[in-house]
Specification:
With 402 residues, the protein is mostly helical. It is built from 14 helices and two strands. The two termini are 48 Å apart.
Length: 402
């Protein structure tokens, strides 16, 4: 088992060496090295801890996927039976559950930066920096929370089943159901809420186990982007490869918490603007602000600070060299007598022109991670998504009879 993990680590490094047609770039080698370190770090964890973590991921992903698949089947049945509004509401619910589950899988298991990658990378970096105290605290936390999360995951599934069985008893939602159509009508009530809540809690449990590693790794990547005056922007962008996926974990949790609170706060759900095509409440700008603020704190500001420090250091060096050359040229006679002096003057003049061009290049270096057009497109897509989410949440109680 552990040999297989180390073989996977070597496979990451070989893949990096073969990138770009066998001529890997600095970015390709840097990515491959981080993959190798993360894989070796994860392989070095205790076997029991790895097994516990995989069991927890299995419970959350498989049961969550099963519930999402069932919701899709229920929505398809409602559409086949022509149940109109009921079919529409079930379709929205199935789509939401499927998107949440697929997004969780892409982040936790198959993404560029998965939970096991983050846990392995943090463990390797702490060992490399000889942070034994932090490593001990992290290991202790993971053991405690993994055990509690495993129990909580099993308990959540059992509790959802216990609540569901009441719906089939006398007086329950399904006690007098005799046809599939009636069952689908009732599926928009409490049972769907129970299933959706189960998927959400199960998806959050692995994040709880990896929370310390995620926080530490986000801080490490922010430090990589902000520190060291000698790192050019293209090297700092390597940290973005991991920083953005890790930030997605925190963004998902922060948005879920905000939306949960918003559903129970009347001041947040009151519409600010109402049009025939939709409405805008404080929920939309609040959710948009959370995403933008987290991005600026975790990615934007560290990167801009790092590039600013790098640009300042490079400009100081160039300007110092220009002053030295200018001073030396000013001290030369108008007509040098020797040929070697002429060569020296020509070299100094060419060097001065080169430093001026380099200074202009340093000043033109982009101080933000992405181009302005990318920011505009991302903001428009994000704003449209938040407006759509605001309107869906406003109509959800009517659709699902909450």
């Amino acid at each position: 088992f552990r040999t297989q993990l180390y073989q996977e680590a070597l496979a990451y490094w070989r893949r990096g060496l073969k990138s770009d047609g066998g001529n890997p770039s600095v970015a390709g080698l840097g990515t491959a090295l981080e993959d190798l370190r993360a894989a070796v770090g994860f392989a070095g964890m205790s076997t029991a801890h790895i097994i516990f973590f995989r069991i927890l991921l299995f419970i959350s992903m498989v049961i969550g996927g099963f519930i999402a698949a069932v919701s899709v089947g229920v929505a398809a049945s409602a559409i086949t039976l022509g149940l109109g509004a009921t079919a529409t509401a079930l379709t929205f619910a199935a789509l939401a559950l499927t998107v949440v589950w697929a997004y969780a899988v892409s982040l936790m298991l198959v993404g560029r930066v998965s939970l096991r990658f983050v846990m392995g990378a943090v463990r390797w970096r702490l060992i490399e920096s000889e942070s034994h105290i932090s490593q001990g605290l992290l290991t202790g936390w993971n053991w405690i929370v993994t055990t509690l999360a495993l129990a909580a995951g099993l308990g959540m599934v059992g509790y959802a089943g216990w609540l569901m069985h009441f719906q089939f008893l006398s007086g329950g939602a399904f006690s007098n159901v005799s046809t599939i159509a009636q069952a689908l009508h009732h599926a928009l009530g409490l049972p769907l809420v129970i299933l959706a809540g189960t998927v959400g809690v199960l998806a959050a449990l692995p994040l709880l186990v990896a929370l310390p590693s995620l926080l530490i790794y986000q801080g490490m990547l922010g430090r990589d982007m902000a520190r060291d005056n000698d790192r050019p922007p293209r090297v700092r962008r390597l940290a973005l490869i991991g920083a953005l996926p890790v930030l997605a974990f925190f963004t998902m949790v922060a948005l879920a918490g905000f939306l949960a609170v918003a559903q129970h706060a009347s001041t947040l759900t009151m519409p600010l603007v109402t049009t025939p095509y939709g409405r805008v409440s404080p929920v939309a700008p609040g959710a948009l602000g959370i995403v933008v603020l987290l991005y600026l704190i975790a990615v934007g500001f560290p990167y801009m600070l790092g590039v600013r420090r790098w640009r300042g250091a490079r400009l100081s060096e160039v300007q110092a060299q220009k002053r030295d050359l200018s001073t030396r040229l000013d001290k030369l006679p108008q007509e040098p007598a020797l040929a070697d002096e002429v060569t020296t003057v020509q070299y100094d003049v060419a060097r001065l022109q080169y430093l001026k061009l380099q200074e202009e290049e340093f000043r033109r270096a982009r101080g933000v991670p992405y181009s302005p057009l990318s920011f505009v497109v991302a903001f428009v897509i994000l704003a449209a998504t938040m407006l759509l989410l605001d309107n869906v949440l406003a109509n959800a109680p009517h659709w699902f009879h909450w």
